[in-house]
Model the fold of this input.
Amino acid sequence: MARIELEAISKRYGDVHAVRDFSLVIEHGELVVLLGPSGCGKTTTLRMIAGFVPATSGRIRLGGRDVTNMPAHRRNTGLVFQGYALFPHLTAAENIAFGLQMRKLPEPVVREKVTRALRLVRLDDLGDRLPRQLSGGQQQRVALARALVIEPDALLLDEPLSNLDAKLREEVRVEIRQLQRALGLTTVMVTHDQDEALAMADRLVVMSAGAIQQIGTQRELYEHPRNRFVAGFVGRTNFLRGLLVEPGVFRSDGGLTLRYDGRSAPAGAVAPGASPSGARRALALRPERLAIGALADSARANRVAGTVEFASYLGAIIEYYVRLSSGEILRVHAPNTGAAGDRAWALGETVHVSWPVEVGLVLEDEHQPEEDHR
Amino acid sequence: MAPRRSVAGALVGPATLAVVLGLLVPLAILFRYSLNRFVPGRLMVEALTAENYVKFFTDPYYVAVLLRTLRVSGICMVLCLVLGFPLAYALARTGSRWKSVLVMLVVLPLFVGNAVRAAGWMVMFGSRGLLNTLLGVVGLIDRPLQLMYTEGAVIVGITAINLPFMVLTLESVIEGIDPAIEDAAASLGARPLQVFRRVILPLALPGVLAGTILVFILGMNAYATPILLGGPRFQMMGPLVYGQFAGLNNWPFGAALSFVLMTATLSLSAVSNLWIQRRYRR
Ligand SMILES: Nc1ncnc2c1ncn2[C@@H]1O[C@H](COP(=O)(O)OP(=O)(O)OP(=O)(O)O)[C@@H](O)[C@H]1O
Ligand SMILES: [Mg+2]
Done:
């Protein structure tokens, strides 16, 4: 049973707070993804768990052992590095055998485990190749096999897919997820690819400037972002800035009066009654929940006229930038259903954007947390 | 492909020509000289004889000089490797802004000429030198130790001169090893010593080979240091060759000595190269 417990770990480099007060418990067999912009401390967190970087403060426990002051080579973590970090002078099989040899397992056992590991990552025939004779995807799988074969207490993946092309990335992420599930490995994965994070995680940790912004499942983060940063980072979001006029009514800086339903507001979001009227807020609107049409849809509480300023054909959806009559811009994602009634909107065309009350989410109109610490 | 190859050919042309004219031709001439006969009064006489080589290998004095040269160069080479590796590693891995200054410090001794440096060693090692004075003051010795004009002094001197070559060679190779690879080894359970033996050393092998061979060749051919720090009774091959040419005007024997020195140097370098490769590669 290997559970990873991080208790308020922090890392400072001089006056740079790479990670601050990071607390998280990762249950046995769980896959947690650390998600955040470049430089937010993801790799540093992972390296503290692996033992390459000593934590400035806080405690780390792996499977109940306090490993805070234990050197990396005694922690039994399996790490897959961003660039794989395979041993270039050893063959794929020798790379995989390395950790087993360090554990002084008898040679026949090593051979047996290496063969099984190679089969697991579907590289049965390539054991004799040197890393430079393997493709990026194959190297990635050697790195994974090398980390898995030592039966680590924690599997740590630092952007393991970043060197693969889009198609391979999707394949390999499914493979990793299946292996991780089958072997019941407690896993922390770092990525700044949202799709990857959403596709693989049991839970996500959104970080910014070294601090945790929110922890939750995909659905929780998407439906109930705690702040503007999370709403903007997980999925795409329009933000309209403005004032609360009265509970349920928002006036944008451009002068639009919009209605929203605050009853289901989660912790962190602003409940309509809880905020004083006149408080500055941001109204978050997911682009795929906005409808675009030639006429205002009277069934929806919010209806705004505008002109199409920009359109991108993205395959499954068509993305429109609509300049509202108030001067503000909304991104709208229209499903590309191919149905006869559907039509594409041309640039400059007048349209109406509409949405029901439950789409709007009112959040504190804070600065991006990143901006605070620059 | 073909045009590129011919361009490459044209580019290495001048270097090839320089090597042939500057190295191979003189070597060929030198080899021819070594087969000539030396007649006092008439200097070099055309001949085709192996007697110079026979003289070298049958006279215990000359054989002893060769063996001493091999021993001194070998010890210096090992010292350079052992002292140079940690230094090179530290230099390669430092994140300090002062890195280029540190590299300069390593190279600095090369800016000082041989004679000046040897004078410095004399100040250090002489019977009234710094070391003896210090030891005397502390009370460890009651009369000066003989430090100058010993094999030890020569070894210290040559090692000091050659160390920068070793450090720079190793440093550039170690810098090419991704530090993440060391972390990977550690995360797989390798203790620091195992990381060194199983990962860093094999990957730094080209540098180790280049560095040791370079330093060995420099040691085998050392001239000024053995003379200045070894004194008149300490003979090594370099000064011996020069003495035959310049002092005794015995060109045939000097040429033969040169060839013995060169052959010993090259063959030992090649053998050690093969041995190390076989031992550590993979
Ligand atoms: N050795 C170091 N010395 C000084 N600062 C460092 C060091 N390592 C990391 N940092 C700083 O700590 C912060 C976090 O770095 P980290 O590598 O954890 O970011 P990251 O989230 O992994 O970013 P990316 O997505 O670009 O990989 C950055 O501001 C970085 O500049
Ligand atoms: Mg990173």
Q: What stands out?
A: The interface with chain A takes residues 178, 180-181, 183-192, 194, 198-199, 202-203, 281-282 of chain B (CB under 8 Å). Residues A 42-43 surround magnesium ion (ligand 2) (CB under 6 Å). The longest strand of chain B covers residues 37-39. Strands of chain B lie at 37-39, 43-45.
